[in-house]
Structure formats: C-alpha cells, structure tokens
Amino acid sequence: MTFLSLRAGRLEVDLAPQAGGSIARFTVDGKIDVLRPTPGDALAAAMLGHYGSDTACYPLLPFSNRIAGGRFVYDGQEIVLRRNWPGVDHPMHGDGWARAWQVQRHDLRSAEIAYEHEADHGGGWPFAYRARQSYRLDDDRLTVRISLENREKRAVPAGIGLHPFFVRDEATDLRCRTTSVWLTDAEVLPTERVAVPTTWDFSDGRRIGEVALDNCFEGWDGQARIAWPNRGLALEMSAGEQLRTLVIYTPPQRPFFCVEPVSHANGRIAATRLAAGDTIAGEVTFRLTIQ
Description:
This protein has a single domain (4-290), classed as Beta-galactosidase, Chain A, domain 5 (Distorted Sandwich). A hairpin with a 4-residue loop joins strand 18 and strand 19. The chain is mainly beta. It has one helix and 22 strands.
C-alpha cells in the first residue's frame, strides 16, 4: 500500500490518495488516534477499489449528503443520478470519495492531491470539474484545503466538504454554536428547518452519547471544540466562510462520531450555482491541545 506520510512534532498523518482522496490515519505519537483508524485489511480493499468510505476522513464533492431519489432540476434540466452507496436508495456524498486521486506534490509536512472528473451522462455526475485537496501539518494542527473548479462552459451546481470520523468514548464532549437544524424523515432526507431544540444544542458543550443525530445544522459560526478528558486531548476545528454548514452524526453504540463542515445544506445542491471557470474552495483546521 502507498501512503503519503506527514510528520510534525508529535503529530502524524497518513494520506491515501488512491482510496478516494482520503486520510487513513491521524495520530498523536503514532498511537493516540484523533480520527478513527483505518484497519489494514479495510484500507487495502479501499485502495484497490478507490473508495474512502471506510477511512478516517474523506472529501465530499460535488455534493454533500443525499439527493432524494437521485433526481433534481437545475436550470430547467432534470438531473438523474444512479445510486452509489450500498443499502441507500439515494445517491450520497458525490463521487470524490470513490475515485483515485493523483499526487501533485509531497514533502515531510505537506501534500497536494487532485482529481479530474469528466462529465458522466450515464447516471453519474454530468458536469466536468477539477478537484484539489492540500494538506499542511504543523506541530499542533492539520490544515486541509479543498476546492472544486467548474470546467463546464455554463454555471453548474457544486458543493464541497469534509467527512471526518472522530474517535469517541463515554466522556467525549462536543461544543459548537448553530441557529437552526433540518429535521429528517425515516430515510434521513430533510423535511423541515427549525430552531435548534434544547436537546440538540451544543453551544455550552455536551457529551456525544446524550443524543443520536444524523442532521444538518445551519447558522454555524465556523468553530467547534471536541474534548476527550479521559485522554487529556482536545481539538479546535475551524472552518472558512464557504464551509459554514455542519452535519452532525452521532450513531449510538459506535466508536466514532462525525462533525462535517460542508458548503450547502442536505438536499439543497440544486440551490447552489458555480459560474463557468469559477472555483469554490474552503479550509478546515484541526488544532490539538495535548496535556
């Protein structure tokens, strides 16, 4: 297996470009996992199949979350997409996570990878784009920049985001401020936007295990703090202006949870617009405090 390994101070990051442009592991001292580690057998399969869904973190582009029935209308044109996720009836998370990315550069502390998408009119994403991810590791933080350039001669729908899987234990705490949230139906499709209810309010911090969520939050200020008091570890996640929507996924009885900075709300890709030749880009910083 081929990794791009980054090292700075006590932090170590292994990237797996072939596995959907993903992060395979993010650790302190090579043994304290910040993100869920990708087991060797799972990673070998992921790299062979070019998918990153079982890794520590993967890119979300050209859209985040689900598109109901794989159908939406854009500029009067109906777009029909095939299913792309096992067991899910709706196309999900775009296609960047399921393609091999190419290495553009790599040194001890940084790397850049890219993916060129050709228009797929057979049920895939029908608009050509160029995607890039750049990584920089410093002694106390990992910074990821993700971008998508429209290669069409017309405006197209386009979104970006990151899908990190954070390690979780019984004391893990999340703090973030949001103003509204989308309720969902049984298939996790958005139904109604409401003010954040008290039971889903993380503004003062609360343990992950107190609530089960798979919801999209809006009005996020771009700051989130995750604390693992039992491990003497805390993380401050900061996102740029283009990534101020937050998907929080806290599945019960699982050793991970997700806090995903994205550019658009679930099911709202048809409301986005990226002009011909333009680029949408955003940056996320994961800064660690280690006791």
